[in-house]
Amino acid sequence: MGRKHPRPPWSGRTAAHRRPGPAWGDTQAAPRALGIDIGRVIINGGGADTTFFGRSEDEALRLTPGVPDAFESIAKLVDRFDRRVFLVSKCGERIQRRSMAWLDHHEFWAKTGLPREQVRFCRQRRDKAIHARKLGLTHFVDDRFDVL
């Protein structure tokens, strides 16, 4: 005689029927790590790129706003990802210096708990994916979908 109730799809005995994710008892699963862009994710600005730093450095530090609630959200993510959070941004040398100066000026490191050493810059957007692989990033926050 047949079964009264069909077997649920997750109760299969083959690998094809298992739920996604690490195996039961697998303590060797790769740790989660997060990448976060800087421009228009942490430092607010208009336009299609980081042109919001077009003013003098002093004006850029004082007048360029942060994205609302970004510091508070990142602080929670730093905790949630056990400090495996990296800033990964595409920019030239001038904007790189200004970005770091802006983050310093606004006490980003103290307010978020992110170590200052966990920042990577690249010159081409496609190079963000290289940083993501090298750092083992499993998640990424960016204002552009096409970068990874």
Structure in a nutshell:
By secondary structure, the chain is of the alpha/beta class. Helix content is 30%, strand content 11%.
Question: Could you characterize what this model shows?
Answer:
The chain is α/β, with parallel strands linked by helices and 148 residues long. The chain has one domain: HAD superfamily/HAD-like (Rossmann fold, 3-Layer(aba) Sandwich), CATH 3.40.50.1000. 30% of the residues lie in helices and 11% in strands. The chain contains 5 helices and 4 strands, in the order E-H-H-E-H-H-E-H-E. Strands 3-2-1-4 form a 4-stranded parallel β-sheet, covered by helices on one side. Helix 1 packs across helix 3. The relative contact order is 0.19. Mean pLDDT is 83; it is low at 8-25.
Task: Provide the fold topology.
Blueprint: E1 34-36, H1 57-63, H2 70-80, E2 85-90, H3 93-105, H4 108-112, E3 119-122, H5 127-135, E4 139-141
Parallel strand pairs: 1-2, 1-4, 2-3
Overall domain count: 1
- Annotation, overall tally of beta strands: 4
What distance lies between the first and last C-alpha atoms, to the nearest angstrom? 53 Å
Count of individual helical segments: 5
Largest sheet strand order? 3-2-1-4
Structural class: alpha/beta
Sequence of secondary-structure elements:
EHHEHHEHE
Helix fraction by DSSP (H/I, runs of at least 4): 25-40%
- CATH fold naming: Rossmann fold
The named CATH superfamily: HAD superfamily/HAD-like
> What radius of gyration results from the CA coordinates?
21 Å
Broad CATH class: Alpha Beta
Which CATH architecture would you pick?
3-Layer(aba) Sandwich
Summed over residues and divided by their number, the pLDDT gives a mean of 83
